[in-house]
Amino acid sequence: MNIQAMKLFLQVVEWGSFQKVADQNFISQRAVSQQIKKLEEELGVLLFIRKHNHIQLTAAGEYFRQRCELIIDMMEDTVGRVKNYKAVATRQIKVGYFSPFDAALIRERLLALPSETAFTMVEEGIEHLTSDVIMENLDCAMIMDDYGFKRNFEELGLSTVTLFEDTMGFGIGKRLGIAPEVSLNDIKSLPVIYYSPENSNYLKEAFLASLNREMHTFDVQRVNSYEQMQMLVSLGEAVAFYPIKLAKHFSNPTEPIQYVIPKDYRSRRFTFKLCYRSKINNPTLKQLVKLIIES
Predict the structure, then answer these.
(1) What does the domain layout of the chain look like in residue ranges?
(2) What three-state secondary structure class fits 193?
(3) pTM for this predicted structure
């Protein structure tokens, strides 16, 4: 399977016709049909239901369409970044983050660095970020600490500096009609979701550690899209845990979500920190850490 085959498949989806795609690419309809058939054989599923003068995506085809769009966008973004990469830049720094909230926090500090600085930004789960810093794949990364449990980063050869302190609470869809004076009992029947860009149990374990033992029956699930999390919470299909101050600051005023701390929840204060290897060899990282300490 290759990118060109995926692009041809997406063209067929868009045009709804093998012949139109063939005309657009100056190839025969037979060539288009063979390419789609080859994809189906490779995947072991039908991508289209073929009818007289009409084709329709199967459920598998719709899922494949979504993944193709994601893969192609990622590839094109990667190619563009590589072509524009400032290989000769005198200042470079590779930074990781795990959510829109910590990304916004570190962005403010990165903007204070000299304009000639070249940035590589990576979004990953917290466990992955920590290991990438240790393995020197990243210069530094944003992590969350002091929530439910506290990690000993010094044992890993890492240092940290605190950017922001917040309190964890819940986002609840306004359409549920639950008053601001909500209790955990009011929401215990709903799934509790959290966003992480990849498989990660760190936030789940931290959340459960913050609850009384009798509340560990909550169904805690990960979603891999922040937009999906906001949609599910808005529709009242789930609740989610958020950094309350940041969520209120960055939320859309028209968003149908209320951010609250349940009256029987031991609201936990926690910290957003930048972690990095204790021995700093990158002068740009050294400057970033200094900016954070002095801010």
Answers:
(1) 3-84, 92-163+271-294, 166-269
(2) strand
(3) 0.66
